[in-house]
Amino acid sequence: MYLRLTLLLLFPVSLLGGCDPAADTDAVPAAPLGPRELAIVVNDSDPSSRVIAEYYAVKRLIPARNMIHVRFPPGASAMRPQVFKPLRAQIQRQTPREVQAYVLTWTAPYRVGCMSITTAMAAGFSKEFCAAACKPTQASPYFNTDSQTPFDDFGWRPTMMLAGTTPADVKALIDRGVAADGTHPTGTGYLMITSDRARNTRARFYQGIELMQSDRFRLEILRRDSLQYRHDVMFYFTGLARVADIGTNTFLPGAIADHLTSAGGRLTDSPQMSSLRWLEAGATGSYGTVTEPCNFVEKFPRPNIVIDRYLNGETLLESYWKSVQWPGQGLFIGEPLAAPFRSDLFTLRKESPYIGDP
Fold first, then answer.
1. What's the CA gap between 233 and 258, in Å, rounded?
2. Alpha-carbon dihedral 108, 114, 116, 120, rounded to 10 degrees
């Protein structure tokens, strides 16, 4: 702890990622997001969504009352806001009061008008979250806070998608997330400084991250465009339109990986590399934008915040969502309850009621 306090004095806030120095992110949350606080949204018109929802509910012991059923034509990449708004209202009416977050069990649609569907579901559709040109968008009140109850505190239910090319891919993703819990993996976080200057804007945080986390997790800052044949990948942050060789690496259960680019969140029709490729390679969580964000670091996960909060025991959903300041265009995908660095897993594995209870 002495080393951490010394480093905070030596490095400016901007280098360490703009974190509020008053926020104590070293404190392990007393009660992270668990099955009681997560609702599954299933599209009953989509057979794959039904399969994934049922599998996830069993694997994560989600209470039956937290299963929210809707119907809409599946498969389109985007949903019109005028269709989405009554759908979200229907979901909200079905949502138990204690629920703090959602997980969506489909891959398309991933967008609502100019917004990602995960932020539209979390906060409601608003053009304040969109950017027709290179400009700031509405900020998240959840950003880098210690809140354990985002709906109670801010009126937002952070949302993640269980996405994949096939139901088998999503089941494998779910299994990795469950397998990660409490394992305290001793892998490596890879922070890549690439040749793409426009997409390399997060690299300015890397030195501070390495110094801040050197006493508890191994991190490597590498000046190259791709990582090959590494068998211990826990974090992989980079900036490229397409990332080569990701399939040659082994991602540990619970691993987080993403690439800063314009269209990674266009899961099924991206002209660049879809963020689904990270999950197919073995990552448990990823992120991408669904409309042009420009290279604002505020619109992408801040690696310093993701890593610190994940190592502190927060779930994947909490760590990822808290790391994005302007999330309107950003899509969160992965297994939301994965908590590899959580020591006290009672909220994830104990208590009832669970499946089958009213």
1. 12
2. -110
In a domain, 69, yes or no: no
* DSSP assigned state of 249: S
Q: Looking at the 3D structure of the chain, how many domains does it have? A: 1
Residues composing the chain? 358
pLDDT of residue 144: 98
Long-range contacts of 149-155 (CB under 8 A, 24+ apart): 149/37, 149/100, 150/100, 150/101, 150/321, 151/99, 151/100, 151/101, 152/100, 155/123
In a domain, 285, yes or no: yes
Structural domain span for residue 198: 2-20+186-325
CB 215 within 8 Å of CB 2: no
User: Does residue 290 belong to any structural domain of this protein?
Assistant: yes
Assigned domain for 207 exists: yes
Point out the residues of the chain with pLDDT beneath 70.
1-31, 345-358
* Three-class DSSP category at 97: coil
Residue pair 314/256 in contact (Cβ under 8 Å)? The answer is no
Angle between helices 47-60 and 167-180 (to 10 degrees): 20
The token pair at 264 is: 């990674």
Q: Is 313 left (phi over 0), alpha (psi -120 to 50) or beta?
A: left
pTM over the 0.85 mark: yes
pLDDT score recorded for residue 345: 59
pLDDT of residue 12: 36
Residue pair 250/282 in contact (Cβ under 8 Å)? The answer is yes
Please report how many Cα atoms fall inside a 13 Å half-sphere around the Cα of residue 91, on the Cβ side.
27
Check residue 32 and give its pLDDT.
72
Please state, in angstroms and rounded to a whole number, the distance separating the CA atoms of residues 70 and 345: 31
- Return d(Cα 305, Cα 23) in angstroms, integer: 11
Query: What does the alpha-carbon distance between residue 61 and residue 106 come to, in Å, rounded to a whole number?
Result: 19
pLDDT, tens only, 242-256: 999 999 999 999 999
CA-to-CA distance for 110 and 10, rounded, in angstroms? 42
Strands in 251-259's sheet, in edge-to-edge order, are 67-70, 38-43, 101-104, 159-161, 330-334, 285-289, 251-259, 233-238, 188-193, 218-223
Asked if residue 353 has a cis previous peptide bond (ω within 30° of 0), the answer is yes
- pLDDT value at position 31? 61
